[in-house]
Design brief:
74% helix, Tetracycline Repressor, domain 2, 11 helices
Amino acid sequence: MMEKTGISKREANKARKRAEIVQVASGMFLEQGYAETTMSAIADTVGGSKATLWAHFASKEELFTAVVDLHVEAFARDVEDVLTGQTFSVPALRRACLRFIDCLLRDNSVMLYRLVVSEGERFPEIKETFYTRGPVKLRCAIADFFATRFDVDEAQQLTQLTMSAVTGYRTDVLLRPDPVGQAQHEAFVDNLLSHSVWPPEKDAA
């Protein structure tokens, strides 16, 4: 199997170790925060020598970037699943918004968001990492979806409005003292779409 894939046993072991480090670091960053999580503590939890950790990640910022990528990749797969190959329609946008809300309100997404908001001022590098590797990628996927029916400028504007509405709703939900269920998510999205005025569609090619 190794020969067919071109991956040596050594490379496979290295990849497994890296993935293990990222998983451990993810839990520690989300539970303890960026400032309180040290490379030494991560190395102790993973086990083995600290030199092994430093061989995979040259800094805590680099390791945090890998953690963000881990969560963003899973998030992006779920959202893009309802966007890939789709041409704009209101029902398709409704499905995407509901999936987006579901992903935003998952425990790991909420914990990562709170970490970046709470520590982003002290550590601007983590805010930049999160933004460029998370929201920016998602904006591109949503803009491509809108661009199937609208011109580029309109697609960008619709993307901004959609993301602002949905992330604003996420903030509202997190601040509420009582739980918010699926029926309320759907009511919000239906209300949003029913009050939206869509720009003229671009001419067919």
